[in-house]
Amino acid sequence: IYYGTASISGYLYSLGNYPALVFDENTPALVKGEIYQIDEKTMAILDEYEEIDPQNPNNEYQRCKLDLITDQGQALSVWVYLMNQQPDGKELIESGDWC
Predict the structure, then answer these.
(1) How far apart are the first and last CA of the chain?
(2) 25 catalytically annotated
(3) pLDDT tens across 18-48, in order?
(4) Helix and strand tally (H, E) in the chain?
(5) Do the beta carbons of residue 84 and residue 58 sit within 8 Å?
(6) Could you say which of 42, 88, 91, 96 would form a disulfide bridge with 31 (CB–CB 3.0 to 4.6 Å)?
(7) Annotated catalytic residue within 25, 34, 40, 50
(8) Is it the case that residue 57 has pLDDT exceeding 90?
(9) Coil, helix or strand at residue 40
């Protein structure tokens, strides 16, 4: 279920065919995104797609729960996939908007 849009502090990089979010609570730079309400089965499918292995600290991404304010002004705690290492040499998307 589509819930709305929000922005989060950090940087967005292009890894070619997909983006990478690097969270940085100390930057004024914002990354734009959409929020969806999903069930546990769908979350498991997304974790598999993103190759999240809880036993491996070197995954390309990690799933973290972060607090944010939606563009509609609502405070939410949401799951976010964050890049697990610095994307050195990758293109910074200065607008913060993959779309």
Answers:
(1) 20
(2) no
(3) 999 999 999 999 999 999 999 999 999 999 9
(4) 1, 6
(5) yes
(6) 96
(7) 50
(8) no
(9) helix
